[in-house]
Amino acid sequence: MLDPGSNRELPPIPAKRYFTIGEVSELCDVKPHVLRYWETEFESLTPVKRRGNRRYYQRHDVLMIRQIRGLLYEEGYTISGARQRLEGEPARSSSGISTQIVRQIRQELEELLVLLRR
């Protein structure tokens, strides 16, 4: 079933190197237990694990999670269908940027431009 709250726009991804599972949960509007489950289902989703088995996600992980979320919640794919879609299109997963990500990057660049002009 589609997530009814999936229509709202996701927040921009901050310029950080690592994100905790809680931060990724908020950035992607997905609960932490769902993120842990997706790690078992999608081979390409492998956050760094540090002391105490704590997960630290990088920017590419957050983008992958957003792509998985889009396939599952917005496009209605099943887990296996989303997995096949991601595995079957390696070029798309690395270069196929959603319009939301493009908007976010554009917004961040415009904010940087304002800062540089000061």
CATH architecture name = Orthogonal Bundle
Largest sheet: 3 strands, antiparallel
Please report which band the strand proportion falls in: under 5%, 5-15%, 15-25%, 25-35%, 35-45% or over 45%. Answer: 5-15%
The name CATH uses for the topology is Multidrug-efflux Transporter Regulator, Chain: A, Domain 2
- Please state the CA-atom Rg, rounded to the nearest Å: 15 Å
- For this entry, what is the oligomeric state of its chains? single chain
Q: What CATH first level would be assigned? A: Mainly Alpha
In short:
The chain is mainly alpha-helical. Helices cover 58% and strands 8% of the residues. β2 and β3 form a beta hairpin.
Would you kindly provide a written description of the structure presented here, covering whatever features stand out?
This protein is mainly alpha-helical and 118 residues long. It has one domain (10-117): Multidrug-efflux Transporter Regulator, Chain: A, Domain 2, CATH 1.10.1660. It is built from 6 helices and 3 strands, in the order βααββαααα. It has helices spanning 21-28, 32-41, 59-74, 79-88, 90-95, 99-117, and strands at residues 19-20, 48-50, 54-57. A 3-stranded antiparallel β-sheet has the order 1-3-2. A hairpin with a 3-residue loop joins β2 (48-50) and β3. It is globular.
How are the SSEs ordered, and which strands pair?
Elements (H helix, E strand, L loop, with lengths): L18 E2 H8 L3 H10 L6 E3 L3 E4 L1 H16 L4 H10 L1 H6 L3 H19 L1
